[in-house]
Each structure stands twice: as C-alpha cells, then as structure tokens.
Amino acid sequence: MTGLKHVEVLGGGPAGLYAAILLKRAWPGISVRLTEQNPADATFGFGVVFSDQALDFLRGEDPETHDLITPLMERWRNMTLAHRGDRVTLDGIGFAAIGRLELLQALQDRAGEVGVELRYDRPIGSLSELSADLIIGADGLNSLVRASDEAGFRSRLEYFDNRFAWFGTTQPFDTLTQTFVTTDKGSLNAHHYRYQPGMSTFIVECDPATFHAHGFDGMGEAETAIACAEIFHEPLQGAALICNRSLWRQFPRLWCENWVSGNRVILGDAAHTAHFSIGSGTRLAMEDAIALVRALQANADVGTALAAFQAARQPIARKIVDAANTSAAWYDRFPEKMALDPLDFAFDYVTRSGRVDMDRLRNLSPEFMARYDAAKGPAA
Ligand SMILES: Cc1cc2nc3c(=O)[nH]c(=O)nc-3n(C[C@H](O)[C@H](O)[C@H](O)COP(=O)(O)OP(=O)(O)OC[C@H]3O[C@@H](n4cnc5c(N)ncnc54)[C@H](O)[C@@H]3O)c2cc1C
After folding, report:
1. Which of 74, 104, 304, 342 sits at a 20 to 30 Å CA gap from 310?
2. In this structure, is residue 264 part of a structural domain?
3. 351 and 265, same structural domain?
C-alpha cells in the first residue's frame, strides 16, 4: 500500500477499535485517529456472547489481542432451554461471553499501546470534520458515514417484529439459558447468561401483542425492569434487573449492497446487522476489520484495496447474516410453538435453520439427541 498517511476511524465499538489497532500495527508510521461520541468508560448493554470457538479466529493472526481478551471471558459447553417446567440441555452448543465494556476497554488499551490517537466524548456531526486518505465508518447502526451517501451504499433497513429489552442482573447462570414463559397476556422469552462471575446479561423479548397487553409501551425503563423481574422471578430467584439504556427496541435487519463510497468504507453494524441470538455481531465486526486491513496490505492503492475488501468479505458476512435472520425469524414466531412439549420445542429450536444434517446434529449434541430419539423415535 502506498500513499496512506492519515486514517480517520469513526466509532469506538469493536469494529472501529479493532480496525485502528490492525492498521497501526501494520503501518506504525501512519497516523490513525479514532473518534467516539461516548466517554471511554460508557457503553450500551451488558455482556455479549461469541458462539462456538469464541475468539479462536484471532489466535493465529493476533495473539496479543487474543491473549488480552480471552482471560476476561466466561465459557460453557452446553445451552439450556427452560420450557413448561422442564430444562432441556442442548449439549455441544457452547458459547463464550464477555462484558461489552471489558472487551472495549481491552481493545482501547491495545489501541493505546500501538499508538492509535483516541478521542472520546466527541460526537461527529458532519464528515467535513474529518479529512483523511481513508475514512472508516465503524459508527454502528445509525452510521453517519453511511448516511453521507445512502444511495451509494444502497442500504436496506427493516425491523423484526419482536420487542426486546437488554438488562443485566447479578444472578449467575450455569449456562446460556433461554427461559420461555406463558402469562395470561402472552408469551415471553429471556436469553440469559453469565458474562462475569457476578454479572449476567438478561434480554427479555416478546411479540407485539404481548408487549401491548402487558402495557410495556406505557412503562419507563425502571418500571419495565420491575415488571420483567416479576415475570421471570423463577430464573432470577428474586434478583433485580439492572438497567443500562434498557429501552424496548425492535432488532434491526440492515444490509448494504455497497460498503465503499470513494475513500469511505463502512464496517460492522454500519454495514450489516446480525440478530443477537446467534452471537455473531461482534465477531463479524472484528472480522470485517481483519479483512479490510488484509486488503489494504495486498493492494497498491486505497481504491483497489477497498474494492477487494468488499468483494472478499461480503459473501462471507452474507452467510452469517442470513443465518442470523433465519434465527431471528424463529424468535418472531416462538409464541406459536409454546404448545409443543419441551423436547419437541427444543428440537424445533435446534433445527430452526432448516438445513440441519441429522448425523451432524447427533455428533454435535449426542446427549440431547439420545434423549429425543428415546422419547420420540429416531428423528430422520
Ligand atoms: C440486545 C443486543 C444483544 C447483542 N448481543 C450480542 C452478542 O451476544 N454477541 C455479539 O457478537 N453481538 C451482539 N450484539 C451485536 C453487537 O453489539 C454489534 O454487532 C457490535 O457491537 C457491532 O460493532 P460495531 O463496532 O460495528 O458497532 P457499535 O458497537 O455499535 O459501535 C459503534 C460506535 O460508534 C459510535 N458512534 C456512532 N455515531 C458516532 C458519531 N457520529 N460520532 C462519534 N461516534 C459515533 C457509537 O457511540 C458506538 O460506540 C447485540 C446487540 C444487541 C442490540
């Protein structure tokens, strides 16, 4: 790569921080500046999960960052579905979790070490404030960089039907657990898992009819937390739900046909979103950064590199985004499935992608499939 002297990164989430780290690591002589609107010690939400191999994708490429982050993670091998008084273990469906703030702070430390200029508490209102050879829009769902050329990036943004609110709790859980409950006003689900020894994520979701029947549309954050803690009294064992901008939202389904406009490129949630149920948005954001820096290393000028990045990365991201959309669609329909008995319900969940190879599933989850086959007869 020739001619790269100054890079501006907008957004201090996983995509922006990791892109800045990799750029500065590849070219220590260039200046890389990252600007984030929030303070360095603030973020939305609580913990996030990574599916399967957690951060193994970093191990070979970037052992320093891998070794910095992995000790901060909680890991477990199985997942649990709690439904109609039964707890079904889905063995082999492992996840690893980390506090979103802890992840960002580890990446901030690493960015500082390699010499990235970090500016916090600094909202950028117009791209005219940034002048650089390359502008990286890692500014999330409401990306200013994307908005600067909406027609060029060809974005499509829709929303899933379910409403969700993201809480924390001090109640620890053994595995990533999904607790499905039926109330006289409809069905709700909670995704809950430990991300630190004394802290867990607790995401509550329900369909629009249940949302309105419970009157959540008229409740503030604190009142919602109390109401949800009552509904999920059993898994919480009486613990409270903690708020951090825990407002009801609908999960966005965003995809951009183009990720490049001139010397601007968008990464992570600015370019695509992946429903939280498959634990991939953060990893996708970091892998986008890896692919971008690889393309810059392999090509002589910024324009060719950005085109190569998009060509190489989009098909890979698309597959994961499609899997996330299919998973989200299952959650949008879960109330219809509440009458299933716990084993059928779990089987429906685990095969929700519609492309499940039974031999593979038997290898992945031998204990669950043995229980299912014994109760229902061998699934074909
Ligand atoms: C409820 C919920 C649960 C989730 N759970 C998981 C999970 O378990 N696992 C997982 O992998 N992913 C999860 N995700 C998705 C994950 O949070 C995102 O995919 C990931 O954060 C994307 O990283 P990013 O860096 O692209 O964007 P973000 O993390 O959104 O970062 C963008 C940053 O840009 C900043 N910014 C925006 N505009 C400006 C501006 N004009 N000036 C300055 N700064 C600006 C923002 O403040 C923000 O810090 C979840 C998301 C939600 C909503």
Report:
1. 104
2. yes
3. no
Number of structural domains (the chain) is: 2
Determine if ligand 1 sits within 6 Å of the CB of residue 39.
Answer: no
Query: Is 37 close to ligand 1, i.e. is its CB under 6 Å away?
Result: yes
Q: Does one domain contain both 325 and 359?
A: no
Q: What is the pLDDT of residues 218-260, one digit of tens each?
A: 999 999 999 999 999 999 999 999 999 999 999 999 999 999 9
The answer to whether residues 112 and 149 belong to one domain is yes
In short, whether 281's Cβ falls inside 6 Å of ligand 1 is yes
Residue 133: give the domain boundaries. 6-44+100-158+250-331
Taking the CA of residue 84 as centre, how many other CA atoms within 13 Å lie in the half-sphere pointing to its CB?
11
Give the pLDDT score at 1.
67
pTM listed for this prediction: 0.95
Does a structural domain hold residue 234?
A: no
Cα of 330 from ligand 1 centre, angstroms: 23
| Whether the CB of 49 sits within 6 Å of ligand 1 | yes
Determine, yes or no, domain membership for 130: yes
State pLDDT tens for residues 301-324.
999 999 999 999 999 999 999 999
